Amino acid sequence: MRELRKHFGPLKAAIYYLILNFDRGVSRNELKVESLAVSEEMRGQGIGTELLKRVEQFATESGYSLLSLDVVDTNVAAQKLCEKLGFEVVRTTRFGILTRSAEFTSSYYMQKRMR
Ligand SMILES: CC(C)(COP(=O)(O)OP(=O)(O)OC[C@H]1O[C@@H](n2cnc3c(N)ncnc32)[C@H](O)[C@@H]1OP(=O)(O)O)[C@@H](O)C(=O)NCCC(=O)NCCS
Predict the structure, then answer these.
(1) Alpha carbon of 78 to ligand 1 centroid (Å)
(2) For a substitution probing ligand 1, which of 3, 7, 32, 38 has the most ligand atoms within 8 Å of its CB?
(3) Average pLDDT for the chain
(4) Which of 29, 32, 78, 79 sits a CA distance of 20 to 30 A from 49?
(5) Backbone angles phi, psi at 17, to 5 degrees
(6) Which residue puts its alpha carbon closest to atom 15 of ligand 1?
(7) Which residues line ligand 1 (CB under 6 A)?
(8) In angstroms, rounded to a whole number, what is the distance separating the alpha carbons of residues 34 and 76?
(9) Which secondary structure element, helix H or strand E, spans residue 89, and what is its range?
(10) What is the distance between the alpha carbons of residues 50 and 47, in angstroms, rounded to a whole number?
């Protein structure tokens, strides 16, 4: 929310926040990552990969069989990171013009099934 406010001001930020956090519910066997971020100056060094691997390890040890997250269509870095770790897009939600000024128009719901 803080980041959104920096870029879009309070009203638009609140709208985007609600859209991005619209809760579709999670199943009992699912662990959903709500936010994942690495400071700008530390990116590209494998920290994001390590964070997601640790979450996956925690999920497995805790008995979850599904790991999930949402990524907006323009966030190529996050999509690549997730694909590299075995996540697949299972649903696309289109927001159309609602979110265009925030530089995304869709969100991908990505899942990884754990053995
Ligand atoms: C997405 C994010 C967490 C990645 O963290 P990171 O520590 O930079 O990630 P890594 O260094 O582990 O990179 C892992 C993979 O991501 C992909 N990637 C990372 N940065 C990328 C970029 N700028 N462009 C394209 N792919 C990129 C690559 O596939 C990379 O694997 P590779 O190094 O083998 O090519 C980070 O960019 C971030 O905090 N972004 C802002 C917040 C955000 O978008 N969160 C995700 C919401 S789901």
Answers:
(1) 5
(2) 38
(3) 91
(4) 29
(5) -60, -45
(6) 81
(7) 36-38, 43-49, 69, 71, 75-78, 80-81, 84
(8) 17
(9) strand 88-94
(10) 5
Q: Where are the beta strands (DSSP E) in the chain?
A: 30-33, 66-72, 88-94, 106-113
How many Cβ atoms sit within 10 Å of the Cβ of residue 9?
Answer: 10
pTM summary value: 0.84
The strands making up 88-94's β-sheet, listed across from edge to edge, are: 30-33, 66-72, 106-113, 88-94
| CATH number of 26-113, picked from 3.10.450.50, 3.40.630.30, 2.60.120.10, 3.40.50.300 | 3.40.630.30
Residue ID of nearest Cα to ligand 1 atom 25: 77
The widest CA-to-CA distance across the chain, in whole angstroms, is 43
Residue 109 in tokens: 């719901």
Per-residue tokens: 30: 């699912």
Please return the burial class of 15, using the count of CB atoms within 10 Å of its CB with bins 0-12, 13-18 and 19+: middle
